[in-house]
Amino acid sequence: MKGDQATILQEKIGSVLVLRLNRPAERNAMSAELVDRLITILGDLDHDPEIGAVVLAGAGKGFCAGSDLGGLARMTSADRARFETDSGRAARMLAHVSKPVIAAVHGFAIGGGLTLATSCDIVVTEDACRWSLPEVPIGLFPAWGIGSVIQRVGLSKAKRLCWGIDTLSGREAAAQGLADMVADDAVGVALATADRLCALPRAQAMAVKRYFASHAPDEAFDVAANQTFLETTLTREAGESFVKYGKLDQ
To answer: What pLDDT, on the 0 to 100 scale, is given for residue 3?
Structure first.
């Protein structure tokens, strides 16, 4: 089954639903349309008994480069707040949807792409990937998903990642806990893992997901991060970045 041909592609392989972020020319940067589409798809998942697991991947050269900075540059402050709130909601839905979600990361997981991946239940990465949170060096702040990073790597490592001074390979990301597995073919391994999950008794597999969802970071993490993000958008450094990336997007 193939679906939306714009921002997210859907394909059902057996009992696995493969979702591909599909803005390859923009490095799969998250637009308002993409985020809205992801929320809709995830909201419908619990009503589809045929789906046992989900693989989240990216089309083109990488997984996701985070928020579309060109789009952010054109938004009002209120629109930016709304967009980042919706992005955080989409990431939290990955933890709360009843189906296991596996991120298949290739190429890069940058900014919101990193926090989108870490919000998934299982993360498979290729070693050649670049993992980073580059918001602070360009005058911004990671607006959502930091709670999932803290859960995976701990406070000290999460703080260092949020400063944006490191770019990790896939193997380094796995060593820190951002990813669970390193593979030559992230999508292939993610699909194989999803098949194994689908083979489990469905009610029991969903019970595991439901139990651990109760330990997922709550909305308060993202509210605090979003407020800090909005404060940084008022700085000179952020303004310069919005001018730069707004021009690149034209």
So the answer is: 41
* Residue found under tokens 């702040």: 141
- H or E segment at 56? strand 53-58
Q: How many domains, in total, are found in the chain?
A: 1
Establish if 115 belongs to a structural domain.
yes
Q: What CATH number did the domain enclosing 168 receive?
A: 3.90.226.10
Predicted pLDDT at 4: 41
Asked whether residue 222 is domain-assigned, the answer is: no
Q: What is the pTM (predicted TM-score) of this model?
A: 0.95
Interacting residues of 164 by C-beta distance below 8 A, sequence separation 6+:
132, 133, 134, 135, 136, 137
- Asked if the structure places residue 201 within a domain, the reply is no
DSSP tag of 167: -
**Encoding tokens for residue 134?**
């580059």
Note the pLDDT of residue 244.
87
* pLDDT surpasses 60 at 248: no
Cα–Cα nearest to 84, from 45, 111, 44: 111
Average pLDDT value over all residues in the chain? 95
- In which domain, by residue range, is 163 found? 8-185
SS3 state at 149: helix
Q: Is residue 217 part of a domain?
A: no
User: Would you say how long the chain is, in residues?
Assistant: 250
Alpha carbon distance 64, 85 (integer Å): 18
Q: Which residue has the tokens 């651990």?
A: 212
- Can you read off the two tokens belonging to residue 11? 């394909």
Amino acid (1-letter code) at residue 143: A
**3-state class (DSSP) for residue 137:** helix
Catalytic positions, written as ranges: 135
Give tens-digit pLDDT for 29-65: 999 999 999 999 999 999 999 999 999 999 999 999 9
